[in-house]
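User: quick one, fold this
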Amino acid sequence: MLPPIVEGAVVMEKGTIWVGASGWVYPHWVGPFYPAKRSESDYLAFYTRHFPTVEINRSFYRLPERRHCEAWARLAPPGFRFAVKASRYLTHMKKLKDPQESLQRLVTAAEGLGEHLGPFLFQLPPHWRANLDRLADLVALLRYPAAFEFRDASWFAPETLSRLLKVLEQAPVPCTVVIAVGGSLPTPPDLPLSGSFGYYRFHQGSEGIGFSDEELMTWAERLRKDRRREAYVYFNNDPKGYAVRDATRLRELLGPLAVRPFVPASVADGRRA
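Assistant:
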């Protein structure tokens, strides 16, 4: 089941959309987002007052210890959610083979987030052809909602896709296929929506790293039509602060469907509301 809603958080309703960025420790966000004199240790507290969710991206490169996750949770306001990207050791090096030990280490660390823990993201490697047996072995072990980003076209072949969706439907927890926008392998536009929640990752716009207003308006309309219980949307186009710019604009376009920050930005900035 999805994480419980804690006191003070927004009441979740069908169609609720969480919008944020993939990661928060980016020195090149100083100026476009972070104030010049903020130390890196202050970035997360500042970020959480401007967005209601973040995708932990560093866990892909190096799995954090549980104490790190506990420290991040202490900096987050009630209701804030962290999505957790699985380690590349599990997804790219082992390619999901014998996942029990690697998955347990990931979950043990992430549970340090407590009530702030959101879904897990499993981004599978490019050029790794579909292996439904390994996927099924991993899915059977899941204890938290999970999203899967498939980056080889073989996963989307019609005969494979139907079996893939069945594997996810039979999971012990809600699972979904990531809608990837831009990047090396965008998700096929006709992919059927899966699972009880949506997960979208925005890698880059059609004409550059950033997304045009027209593109964001198109995606806002598509998100409005996503009638699953809720959706998570993360911008991975971090250069020059495009991720926070585009996430902020998409949230504006979504209006009341988007979850708002749980602490007013004016409070975070030290100004009176």
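User: anything notable?
Assistant: The longest strand covers residues 16-22.
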